[in-house]
Amino acid sequence: MRTVPLGNTGVQVSVFCLGTMYFGSSTDATTSYQLLDQYVEAGGSFLDTANIYARWVPGYVGGESEILLGRWMRERNARSKLFLASKVGFEMPGVRRGLRASQIEEECEKSLKRLGVDTVDLYYAHCDDCNTPVEETMEAFDKLVKAGKIRFIGASNFSAWRLEEARWVSQTHGWAEYCCIQQRYSYVRPKPGANFDPQVAANEDLLDYCKTRGITLLAYSPLLRGAYTRSDRPFPEQYVGPDTEARVAVLKAVAEEKRATANQIVLAWMIHSEPCVIPLVAASTTDQLRENLGALNIALGVDDMVRLNNASA
Ligand SMILES: NC(=O)c1ccc[n+]([C@@H]2O[C@H](COP(=O)([O-])OP(=O)(O)OC[C@H]3O[C@@H](n4cnc5c(N)ncnc54)[C@H](OP(=O)(O)O)[C@@H]3O)[C@@H](O)[C@H]2O)c1
User: Fold this and answer.
1) pLDDT per position as a tens digit, 267-305
2) C-alpha distance from residue 262 to each of 120, 161, 226 (Å)
3) What pLDDT, in 10s, does the model give residues 96-131?
4) CB of 48 closer than 6 angstroms to any ligand 1 atom
5) Would you identify the CATH topology of the domain 3-235+274-283?
6) Per-residue pLDDT for 313 more than 80?
7) Mapping DSSP to helix (H, G, I), strand (E, B) and coil, where does residue 89 land?
8) Residues 6+ apart with CB under 8 A from 309
9) Does 183 contact ligand 1 (Cβ within 6 A)?
């Protein structure tokens, strides 16, 4: 699988990151193993999890995805070949929401234990915390980097100005800086004023900021849970905006020309974007993942990209 730079870290990562949010909960262990094997067979090595996955699924408390990944990595002896990302910040049973130093330290230890590893390659602030001084948060992350418990840090669900504030604090003190931002992002755009709280969608301002600072954008929920191709999955109401119809029409036209599916064009469009956007590719069946990985073989020319980018009402 093609690799791309992760921000300014000097490290290359797989252009598709595998989202493992439901592994070990809604997606049973056998299927989760099949999906992990399938992704690795396709040459992928970038896995995304979080301490809270998937605490909202009835019967689960969070940590199940990390535990499953830990077991699978041990059984496959795969740790050294992988680039592993996890997150801290959202609430889960026994843990309050926030980015206090004590919380970052404690949650990192728990994640390392569940994953059965010494180091997490990329550790995200899963959400912003305006009640904790930025200095406290960034220093805590920096200490984990210095201790070798994490290699790089990223942010998720942040606004551009808060990312810049964090960058300034880190640079002032010589601490680790956020190298990437993981945000809600798809091909159709949210309608003006759409609210996803506690999630934050990428907007033009953030894209501009990332480009200027060399920060990588990772797109979560890129396929809107299948809405591009499934009649049982209407677009969430936040996406039913003035240009949704026009964008879906161009997407479907390009898909037909390329003999591809709309899902594949969404993912191909992201990795052909300049700078490249890394999608968090998720699936709950091997057929879905096969389709999604097929996007790696789609070539979009400059004309295709211009058409896709410019589609609006
Ligand atoms: N940082 C954050 O706050 C945040 C938030 C959300 C997610 N994430 C990360 O992003 C990853 C992806 O998020 P997501 O699950 O919301 O992504 P998504 O792309 O919106 O949805 C994935 C789901 O779409 C359906 N699907 C996938 N491929 C399909 C296909 N080819 N045809 C039809 N349906 C298909 C499946 O739903 P069914 O299972 O129903 O079939 C699959 O579980 C997560 O695993 C997690 O790592 C991060």
Assistant:
1) 999 999 999 999 999 999 999 999 999 999 999 999 999
2) 34, 33, 10
3) 999 999 999 999 999 999 999 999 999 999 999 999
4) yes
5) TIM Barrel (3.20.20)
6) no
7) coil
8) none
9) no
Reported as a single tens digit per residue, the pLDDT across 198-229 is 999 999 999 999 999 999 999 999 999 999 99
> Where in the chain are the domains?
3-235+274-283
**Cβ–ligand 1 contact at 128 (below 6 Å):** no
Tokens of 220: 């979560």
Instruction: State in Å: Cα 221 to ligand 1 middle.
Output: 5
Q: CB burial class (10 A; 0-12, 13-18, 19+) of residue 91?
A: middle
Q: Which two structure tokens, joined as six digits, stand for 160?
A: 């551009």
Per-residue exposure over 264-285, b if at least 16 CB sit within 10 Å of its own CB, e if not: bbbbbbbbbbeeebbbbbbbbe
DSSP-derived letter for residue 233 is S
Dist CA 219 CA 181 (whole Å): 9
